[in-house]
Amino acid sequence: MNNEDFLEAYLSDRQKIVDEALQRYLPDENNVPHDLHNAMHYSVFAGGKRIRPILCLAALEACGGDMAPAMPVACALELIHTYSLIHDDLPAMDNDDFRRGKPTSHKVFGEALAILAGDALLTEAFVLLSRAEKVRLAAEKRLAVRLAAEKRLAVIQEIASAAGAAGMVGGQALDIRTGKNSPDFEGLQCIHRLKTGALIAVAVKAGAILAGANDDKIQSLNVYGSHLGIAFQISDDILNVEGDSRLMGKQTGSDVASGKVTYPTLLGLENAKAKLVEHVESAVAAIEAFDSRALPLRVIARYIMERKS
Amino acid sequence: MNNEDFLEAYLSDRQKIVDEALQRYLPDENNVPHDLHNAMHYSVFAGGKRIRPILCLAALEACGGDMAPAMPVACALELIHTYSLIHDDLPAMDNDDFRRGKPTSHKVFGEALAILAGDALLTEAFVLLSRAEKVRLAAEKRLAVRLAAEKRLAVIQEIASAAGAAGMVGGQALDIRTGKNSPDFEGLQCIHRLKTGALIAVAVKAGAILAGANDDKIQSLNVYGSHLGIAFQISDDILNVEGDSRLMGKQTGSDVASGKVTYPTLLGLENAKAKLVEHVESAVAAIEAFDSRALPLRVIARYIMERKS
User: Fold this and answer.
1) Does the pTM of the predicted model rise above 0.80?
2) Between B119, B123, B149, which is nearest A153 by CB?
3) Which of A203, A301, B13, B170 is the most buried (most CB within 10 A)?
4) What is the CATH number of the domain that holds A115?
């Protein structure tokens, strides 16, 4: 199997596992007001590629960890990502009507419920993070090895910090403030490192911590994740310029039209692509010492470089 | 000292301790975009009475626990409460221009930043919840007894569940849906139990768990907290009818003007007051078996009944 076939099979397998877990983990519809429940499900199952959970699981795998007890953490990352999209799309923020080819949450459910669905998903992420994966372990008759509580607290600490004021939310605040005020390259990189990079980097790091990796490995994977996070944002910017809007499920060219400063508008398309390659190569280099179990991490890095949507 | 003087001294002492801790705990301004940092501080220090942290600490005290290591948990409850107020006040939600006599977050910072400040406070609550209180312990040269990690995870689980889709956010979703659709008494009670009651009840329960109380005590305190939460909401509704708007820092009478269904509008003012007394008495009765260390919990219950703002 060549890398491309492997990647396709791997991503589709993992997406399926993550989707199933998300279905199980979202709060029961009997315990949640009907329309809030619908709004939460609508956005969680709106066709996300589950990159953050998959990265978390791939990092875990690269360190020889067991996937089952890490599923709540992987899924919590997706809930945090989904909440951030719902709030970013709001009229007061980016005011986007479509995402992944579907009307955004506030277009379907109204602004109030979209705000609350985002709040609920963020909060439920921490419900998930603080619970051990008991049911699944029992069902599979595995040894019910619960992750050490200290390790789980460390993961919550890392994820909350990456998602909070000094991470993802901070990046969004910088982004809306900057708007058309033309940040320079440093400013742009800072926004991206926080807004997109922090959650992707912490997904990888959380996987390593959960697997019980040593500090060296955690550090290497952190470097991998940081480069990958920036690469992911650059590839997003590039797709906004030259992506196929049918594949993307949203209008492309919007950054140029709105005068938004991005890697391509600041550096030119070719230089932006060169930067993307640079970060992907740095990511792959950071995990050079890992054995073949890191293959998924390596091919995901290449995928970021070549993705079409 | 009579109960009234005791209560005043107690509340003012605890408010000061909580305020100082919140100052220390909010993320450093060097790590957070300037305007996001300002918006977070603006709402956290807008004159809140710190009822939830104080209840958490009082429950802890009633069970003989040590206050210092529980401060991050107490403060996290206040951050969650503050975020919920910011989002509730948004134009898409209750559209309130003033709270506690000051312009609401979105009036000062704009809608986008108000949404983000709320998101950031909710997330920072979990940063706090997942970290041990190391600095303070070291500074006071106490034995650095870290709360058992399992206990802290249980507290995160309880608080996240109470704040999430099946708790506070769910209550707000019911509330905006119901609006003028005249819920019956059961419906109203359900909204209140979730929207206000859940976070107050969990504040008390978290204090008991942190103190290492046995299941009986936790259960009794949970009953206390549940009644207190409903009592608190009824007193809010009553103050909206007959409170002094200068003391309240916001316009009163708005519920009647907007046709909102509340305890007084549904039951009449006198019956609402009777319900309030009932819940306060049930709360106090639930902790009858506790010794004198539960005095603060007892006087706080009376305070809910008699508060003027």
Assistant:
1) yes
2) B149
3) A203
4) 1.10.600.10
